[in-house]
Amino acid sequence: MTFSKILIIIQRSNGDVLLSSSLIQNLAKYYNPTFIDLLVNDDTIAIAKMLPNIRNIYTFSYKEKKEHRIKQEVNIIKKIYKNYDLSINLTSSDRSVLYAILASKYSISAIENNNKKSWWKKILLNNYYIFDVKKHILLNNLEPLKLIGIKQEDNEISLNIDDSVIEKIKLRLADFHIFKFIIFHPSAQYSYKIYPQKLRNDLLLMLNNLKIPIIISGGSNNIDSQISRQIPELKNVFNWIGETSIEEYVALSYLSDAYIGMDTLNMHVAASQNKRIFAIFGPTNLSMWAPWSNQLYSKTLDNAPIQTYDHITIFQANLACVACGKAGCDDSHGKSECLDHINPKVVFDEVQKWKSKLP
Fold first, then answer.
1. pTM of the predicted model as reported, rounded to 2 decimal places
2. Mean pLDDT of 50-72
3. In sequence order, what DSSP letters do the residues of 85-141 get, joined into one string?
4. Residue ranges per structural domain of the chain
5. CATH number belonging to the domain at 163-356, selected among 3.40.50.2000, 2.40.440.10, 3.20.20.140, 3.90.780.10
6. In the predicted model, what is the mean pLDDT of residues 273-287?
């Protein structure tokens, strides 16, 4: 089979969009297609624009769904209907599966391992694969390659950064006389993933003594704004929460020496850039969401209070329930008690050991 016009559908979060880059690179290498387009949720377009080998990006808006549902669906279908030789959908939602079926002559999609939900998808799709929650998201995203006979050769994550954005961040850093620095990212999309304030500030107090600039990163949403107000004023700590766009953050990460923080998009960006990573994990399953090593083409499989592979160190609580994979202990976005059991001194000691070996 040969495909020259390809549509990739990723209706999930920023991290899912970023971790589709390996699939896209493999398709681009194998087929050298006329073009590859994306259909993503509108809140992930900033990351989507930074993926290599992409021509057009279509967006789906949940706000538009509430206000103009039918109009939005009609507009999207008009743009994609039978315009592609191949469509690949990386999520199993009914809507995204229908987009894949309508968009191309040959459609592939992830589906649920539940025949009551997926029986019609098996009939209408040309090919499908079961989304495996025990497998890393990057490897799940590469499953379509097997279905069209492509041997995966590129398991790396990569992003394009405009040189002008890098220069802009360099100039801003120079204004603060910062040339080598560590990023500390204390926030996440959901509060159940966030290290408690007291432990976070204790860690910052210790990091401040390393006498290397620590730049605190974050967005401008309510969670990040609340954290910003809680950051202590310290000589070597620079609070940049809400002061960078996603593209500017990627440039900042590119210029940094290391990443310390939560399991979120920013951690995966740092992994894609082969940065030294110190990641604090709560209930998130490592099997699917551990930082991916571009050198090892792999990630960790096990839970452990502290573990290092390649340039990545992960911290978890030493509790029997870790990692439960729930959205907080109540599985309703409440508190994750496991995060209370990660000692900031343990995190600091690992960072200090790394720094002591630097030239």
1. 0.93
2. 92
3. EEEEE-S--HHHHHHHHHHEEEEEEEE-S-HHHHHHHHHHSSEEEE--TTS-HHHHH
4. 5-147, 163-356
5. 3.40.50.2000
6. 96
